[in-house]
Amino acid sequence: MTIRRRDLLRHGAGAVGALGAAGLLPFWASSFAHGVQAAPDTLTGTDILLRAEHGSWAIDGRHGHATMLNGTVPGPLIRLREGDDVRLTIDNRLDEDTSVHWHGLLVPPEFDGVPGVSFPGIRPGERFTYRFPLIQSGTYWYHSHSGLQEQIGLFGPLIIDPKGPDPIASDREHVILLSDWSFLHPHRLLMKLKQQSGYFNRQKQTLAGLASGRDQPAKDRLDWGRMRMDPTDISDVTGSTYTFLVNGHGPADTWTGLFRPGERVRLRIINAAAMTVFNVRLPGLKVTVVAADGQPVRPVTVDELQIANAETYDVIVTPDEDKAYALVAEAVDRSGIARATLAPRAGMVAPLPPRRRRPLATMRDMGMDMGGMSMKEMGDMGGMSMAMRDQRNAPSVPLNPGVQTIAPMPADRTGDPGQGLIGLDHKVLAYQDLVALVPNPDARAPSRSMEIHLTGNMERYMWAFDGKAFSAVTAPIPFRENERVRVTLVNDTMMTHPIHLHGHFFELVTGKGDHAPRKHTVAVLPGGKVTFDLTANAVGDWAFHCHMLLHMHAGMFQVVGVRPDPAPESAGEASA
Ligand SMILES: [Cu+2]
To answer: What is the pTM of this model?
Structure first.
């Protein structure tokens, strides 16, 4: 039955002449994929041409409008080789400016692809060629950095094979590219959220929930209500409007990756979603994490992992039975799932695990984990209203309307498995489980440290660093070339923010010495903090932003400026 439906859809798309080739899928993402090695339309070599254009595509049988590359959503698989000098040309056939950012790649700043920061952008009808040497390998991806194009389809996977042998051995590889799709244009999503925070939340607490014990007890509910906080507010945009996709397939279409029983299958998992953090598991299979953000880590075996927007994980699974296995990528608020099937033959379907109860935010998510004390008790310690927005807890942050709360006691949450996954009876990956496979290139102790607060006001849908939206920022965050700086990100809000720095990897500070895990994107859990050490070795201006795309759009975006040392313009002057 599933096959027939899928065939209909495929033929349907081909039969509608007006659509032309648009809306078809690249081979790597076709409904029954043999593995990325076998995908004949993969773009390889050193000269790549990508066409940005408008088109229509089908999601579970319904047509949507997208901005796309080479006529497909997701875009083509680009597979390059470390050590090569590559030229990637974008031919802009859209009626608006476009750009492509190579997410996680270490490239010269002028080829990083962020309009207004790295280059002016690519005008309609024009071509732009990115040229850079590939000095790394691993699983990455690419996406538009113009307007809201990324949210409506302009993204795809990018693999760089190592120059020498791959430290990660496998018999077969699949790309698992997660995304979210709404038939409402992202501008409309943003408008709805500005009009009414929690607009997309259909999982609010109810009286029935209270009676059944599913929701917060009445006392807590009163406390949270007084602060205008909703513990069911986990995701801004939810399954009420989003369809969650694996390789461009909705849950009804279901993408299937094939394997032979006993093979070591490498899954290159990429979260390309606009606004969705996913919990990924394959019931019945252990998942061995072998790389994070493209960088190999010591293998660590888990049952489940949370992947924030823009992160990548490479994992190995070894399905040894002649049966179908489900891959479930559950939206963090459990308002929906993306699903895929791993199967020895086409047409097999694996049963899905029962839907789990939606999570509730906790005191820990407010940055107020005080060992079971109630808010009333804490309030008695010094005044609750003061405690959730006390300047003393963040002297550098102005208490303007964009700053709704300041976490009073933000905890290092790198040992946590992710929101909603604490206390499960199986092993969930935490950042503290990650250990780099090879020693870090720079293990110097940092020479200075800085703290950056992630701030927001859910009611007004305002998001910023240190209470200052990008529109109000006048200068980049300054770094000197090659200086090593310890950066702590403090999340004063009740949302996870996946923070991405362009042009660099940074080392998470989790006590792993010179084997700290290296990342380009780090999820800072609600009310939590993350510390990383950064060697600012790439001179230039680099985007630094939240990868929740509507947060970025609303102002949680900054520029990091790495200046040569000594800076030519200040040579001879006393430094300030
Ligand atoms: Cu954010």
So the answer is: 0.92
